[in-house]
Each structure stands twice: as C-alpha cells, then as structure tokens.
C-alpha cells in the first residue's frame, strides 16, 4: 500500500463537537420543559414524552447507520485501490506475451 492509505482521521474539531453536544442538551432541555409545563392531562404529557424519546433514539440510530455505511464505502474503496496497485506492480509492459 502507499503512504496515503492511513486510517481515516476525524474531520470534526473539538469546538464543533462541543457545539453539537451543547445544542443537543439545550434542545432536549427545552422540549422536556415545554412538555412538563404544557397545560394538558398527564397522559397527553406522557405520550408527548414517549414521542420525543422515540424521535431522539431514531435520530441516533439513523446517524449510526449513515456513519457505518460511509465507513464501509471507505473500506471498499481502500481494498479496490490496493488491488489496482498490486496489479500495476505485477504488470511488466516489456515482458513477452505468454511468458
């Protein structure tokens, strides 16, 4: 393999991660407080809470599936690149045909 076939590095910075975590925490807090102070019956509040939790877990699952697919595509790309490099390294244009 060539020297550029390193393990993929994380393209996100610490600041971006912190911003995303704070944004998630703030939005979760806002939705929780909003559901808690909503002037409705407790069963409606519970239904909205379960719906919010379902939405959050679905978003995490979708993000994981997208990340896994991207990593798989990266691995397949590196394998294909290695195969081509091997074929090119073994190829001798000056060798007589059939030898």
SSE topology sketch:
Blueprint lengths: L13 H24 L4 H49 L9
Short summary of the structure?
The chain crosses the membrane at residues 12-37, 43-63. The protein has 99 residues and is an all-alpha fold. It has two helices and no strands.
Structure, described:
Helix content is 74%, strand content 0%. With 99 residues, it is mainly alpha-helical. The chain has one domain (14-90). Helix 1 (14-37) runs antiparallel to helix 2. The radius of gyration is 25 Å and the shape is elongated. The model is unreliable at 1-5 (pLDDT under 50).
Q: How many strand elements? A: 0
Q: In sequence order, what are the helices and strands, one letter per element?
A: HH
Number of domains: 1
- Gyration radius, in Å: 25 Å
How would you state the average pLDDT, rounded? Answer: 84
Uncertain ranges: 1-5
**Residue share in helix:** over 70%
Strand composition percent = under 5%
Shape assignment: elongated
- Tally the helices: 2
Largest sheet: none
Structural class: mainly alpha
Alpha-carbon distance between the two ends: 27 Å
Name some characteristics of this structure:
elongated, 99 residues, mainly alpha
